[in-house]
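User: I'm putting together a small comparison set for a docking exercise, and I want a reference complex before I start. The sequence is below, and the ligand is adenosine-5'-diphosphate. Could you produce the 3D structure with the ligand included, as structure tokens?
Assistant: Of course. I'll restate your input first, then give the structure tokens for the complex.
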Amino acid sequence: MRTAIYPGSFDPVTFGHLDIIKRSASMFDRLVVGVLKNSAKKSLFTIDERVSMIKSLTKDYPNVEVASFDGLMIDYAKQIGASVVIRGLRAVTDFEYELQIAQTNRVESPEIDTVFLTTSLKYSYLSSTIVKEFASYGGDISKFVPKEIIPLIMEKFGREA
Ligand code: ADP
């Protein structure tokens, strides 16, 4: 059985992330979406909120699990038996950083490979940061995130959905 991990902050999850989840779930037997507990990075949503949003949005994919982790991603990957790390590439700006991380991980753990999925063009501009920026000014985020989570995001900014 081939397990892949898709790690990230997902603060909040967007259509871009969900597209990568859907596509990678069809490529592997088991996909674990690993939500990073990053104490250095100030997040809008708590770790439990992020996990629960992704769980409810992926409930129809039987081979997708959602869990949080802290510490080194590659250690967590080993712990859950993942042999592949999935990352999404939006533009060349993602590339240099992602390549460096993938190569570092490969030195540490040669048995785990990183697979890059290029984003669907319609989501190539999309990031969690853009969603937060838009929402903070009361903008329409319905093209960025599923409707189920719009009220949760707007509430964080004291705005009505
Ligand atoms: P991180 O803080 O680790 O960058 P993110 O939650 O921002 O976490 O992203 C997790 C992964 O999803 C990364 O591989 C990122 O490149 C990818 N990703 C983010 N937004 C998109 C998008 N719009 N389309 C495809 N992949 C994306």
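The helical segments are 15-25, 47-57, 73-79, 92-108, 128-136, 150-156. The pocket of adenosine-5'-diphosphate is lined by residues 8-10, 14, 16-17, 20, 87-88, 90, 94, 119, 123, 126-128 (CB under 6 Å).
User: Thanks, that's exactly what I needed.
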